[in-house]
Structure to design on (698 residues):
DNA sequence: TTCGACCGAGGTATCGTTTCCTCAAGGGCG
DNA sequence: CGCCCTTGAGGAAACGATACCTCGGTCGAA
């Protein structure tokens, strides 16, 4: 279709340097069996013509892109940005690099399908499964090595690194209970569903902690949220207050929701942690800079990133034939332990 | 290299369905000239074999990827995450999709080169130029349509959407001066350099406002920061306090830095805005949720995203030959006007 | 009855690289 | 002096898909 001036190809370089494309290819890739003089001549022509290899053609032939795809539900969530940074940092020394794409939380199937199709381009794929349904994932039957980083049990088609949502939330809730809260809101919680999504699991932990400590629980305190963002966290707390629901603690489904909650409590003149204790989940960098600093559950971020990459490397090695016997090894599923990071939004013991 | 089971190709499908690859291709792409029965048979085989088109091969042949690349300095900065989201949202209806890569703030040249090389894969590229030097950009001589979104004047090799750093910072500074601040810190500022980077430009605006309003300026109030993140903003304010520097206002180079500053002021027992007024830059979503809410300069985020895409669409149309005469049109450079969004971190007039 | 249009389908070149193999020339070693 | 190994270089086949062109058959219109 392109009418514009054709891009410079390896053939153009070969012709201008009076060598074969094979030789040009060797020079570009730093392979041996090229005379120094020839090499130099080729490099001169490359510079003169401004030749740059076509990565698509290279990928097709080489069957390799040196790129790892990361699929996240949203691009503007601190948690995913920070996860991406950790992964990119760890990947850099290996010569591969990270490419981030958005899956969208509740996109139409066709869009999801298109997203998945593109993932085939990468040497390996990391998928964060938050809004994805198992059926969506089943359809993902390509050969590319995949590692899931997620929230919930899934059909074990892929290696899967899970955070311990239930125990993490239970620890957070127990912490509030131990520090004296008795009416704790589960902000962004979800109940009465058979789905095993993140809000449901964290709510489950919230229940568990109450049961363990023998504290009765008011179901009205589970406050669902449509979108787990700051504005929704803010709105939900305002709504609880408007409805006259009394509470003295908040377990937020995510730190981002907690930040919205903190702001709402401030507007309502409610003191944190004196009147209401707040605990978040994810331990994003922002927790150190809220007012007050946010107590949060660290799902094991460093370990999650490291484990994901270890699994992926292993699958990729098997895939590229270095350890062919490992190609069909059963999928692995690990749960990374969570730990509570106590800051200022909860009271001292 | 791959020893594993070869992926299913269009040829495998053709063989199993007893048709030609051409026919399979037509079916996959929904092209006409295929009998309903044949189409159905092919689709059955596709489902049975789990065939998925190889996007790399398709891209090579079609000369098109339907993907737009976005190069950002860091993946965990709210500003870029939010920019990416806006771009992705606007791109979705066009059938293209956004792919985000990290350039790194101060990476080695080789890494930058590798990053750039991969960008050739995309139909269009959006580059945020913060840590990039003009020389780096010169080397970027491929044919792919490129739009720069940046902070500073650049060699006009590409279309360029700039934010008005100088006037934006001047407006912010003037706002503080008008509301009574007299010793204003330029947090993350930079002076005494000929470079036209973002910190320098915003510092320039800070100077301008002082000059315009005839307020004398203490050079010690310009506090440089190595990394424009929350921790650095926090540390810089603590350092100023430790050094006994008196101040009653802060213009932060970015909102993220301002958030760090707010936290430091809180720890120091300094009230905002009563004792010290604070204004940030970028107008990220977080500004609505800090305590107090952060007054900030909106560089025109919506308009920036819209303009970037308009330029890119136009270049891409020219590139693909729809308007060949436009292919060599001179590059455009626009500056989007900034506007101050007043919140709670500055005093009422 | 004949001719042209259209439909279904396939053959084949091509996108720009890399990779495998071949081959000639030169040099060291027995 | 002959043999073998190494070096420099090129020819040609992939990689997996799409697009252009061709071709036989059918059907409607003149």
């Amino acid at each position: 279709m392109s009418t514009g001036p054709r891009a410079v190809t390896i053939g153009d370089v070969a012709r201008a340097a009076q060598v074969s494309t094979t030789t040009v290819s060797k020079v570009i890739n730093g392979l041996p069996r090229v005379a120094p003089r020839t090499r130099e001549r080729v490099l001169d022509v490359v510079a003169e013509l401004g030749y740059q290899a076509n990565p698509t053609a290279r990928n097709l032939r080489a069957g390799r892109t040196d790129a790892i795809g990361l699929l996240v539900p949203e691009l503007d969530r601190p948690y995913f940005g920070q996860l991406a940074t950790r992964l990119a940092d760890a990947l850099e020394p290996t010569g591969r690099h990270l490419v981030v794409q958005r899956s969208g939380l509740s996109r139409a199937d066709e869009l999801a399908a298109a997203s998945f199709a593109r993932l085939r381009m990468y040497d390996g794929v990391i998928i964060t499964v938050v809004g994805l349904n198992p059926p969506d994932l089943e359809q993902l039957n390509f050969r590319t090595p995949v590692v899931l980083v997620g929230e919930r049990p899934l059909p074990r088609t892929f290696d899967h690194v899970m955070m311990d949502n239930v125990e993490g939330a239970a620890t957070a809730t127990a912490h509030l209970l131990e520090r004296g809260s008795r009416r704790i809101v589960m902000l962004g919680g979800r109940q009465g569903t058979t789905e095993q999504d993140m809000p449901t699991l964290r709510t489950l932990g919230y229940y568990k902690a109450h049961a363990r400590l023998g504290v009765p629980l008011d179901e009205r305190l589970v406050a669902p949220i449509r979108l787990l963002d700051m504005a929704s966290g803010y709105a939900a707390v305002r709504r609880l207050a408007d409805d006259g629901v009394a509470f003295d603690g908040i377990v937020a489904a995510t730190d981002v929701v907690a930040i919205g909650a903190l702001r709402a409590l401030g507007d309502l003149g409610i003191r944190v942690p004196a009147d209401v204790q707040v605990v978040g989940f994810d331990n994003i960098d922002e927790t150190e800079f809220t007012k007050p600093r946010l107590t949060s559950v660290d799902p094991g971020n460093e370990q999650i990133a490291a484990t994901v990459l270890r699994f992926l490397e292993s699958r990729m090695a098997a895939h590229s034939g270095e350890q062919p016997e490992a190609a069909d090894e059963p999928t692995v599923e690990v749960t990374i332990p969570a730990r509570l990071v106590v800051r200022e939004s909860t009271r001292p013991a």
In short: The two ends of chain A are 70 Å apart (CA to CA). Chain A touches chain B through 67 residues (CB under 8 Å). Residues 28 and 43 of chain A are 8 Å apart (CA to CA). Residues 301-319 of chain A form the longest helix (19 residues).
